[in-house]
Amino acid sequence: MNIFDQIFSRTKVSPLKRKNNIEFEIKYQSEILLNKGFEIISGLQKQDHNLILYRHFYETPKEDETIIFLGIRVITKKGILYPDPVLKAFFNDEFTDISLADIEIEEYLSNNGYGSILLSTLIEIAKKRNINITGWISSVDSDHIDRLIHFYKKHNFEVILDANSSGSLKIGDLIWKNI
Fold first, then answer.
1. What's the pTM?
2. Mean pLDDT score of the chain
3. Using CA of residue 77, residue 78, residue 82, residue 86, what is the dihedral sign?
């Protein structure tokens, strides 16, 4: 890896506090998240990755939240994989819809099911509140549009691509209806 790749790479592996002690690291990372105001939703395991699914409420009660921030802390024997995969969404003013803003997963962490975990958690939030989820596909994602369409359809979203989106930031709409 050349020096520029090292400097500008967002890929980071932070070593475990106690070598080969995953259980300690899960507890340690959970405490860090809790101390920062995050709520631990669950602990999961996918292959050799231990995951902590968390949510931040920005110092507001759950019923008053306007922003939804979900994340996954990925812990492996090699260390903590950063940056955490995250999902960002927000409620509209009337709290009748959730707008999906972004799912951010670094390329080296993609195709491990983290996006599905995050989106499924958002869908559970929408189901509990009996509301829909909307969003849109950005032109910055046009290089993997087929993968995105497959991903959203797998989670029962309607994907409506705009044939007249040339030069536009928005190239399609996403709709998930709480049935």
1. 0.90
2. 90
3. negative
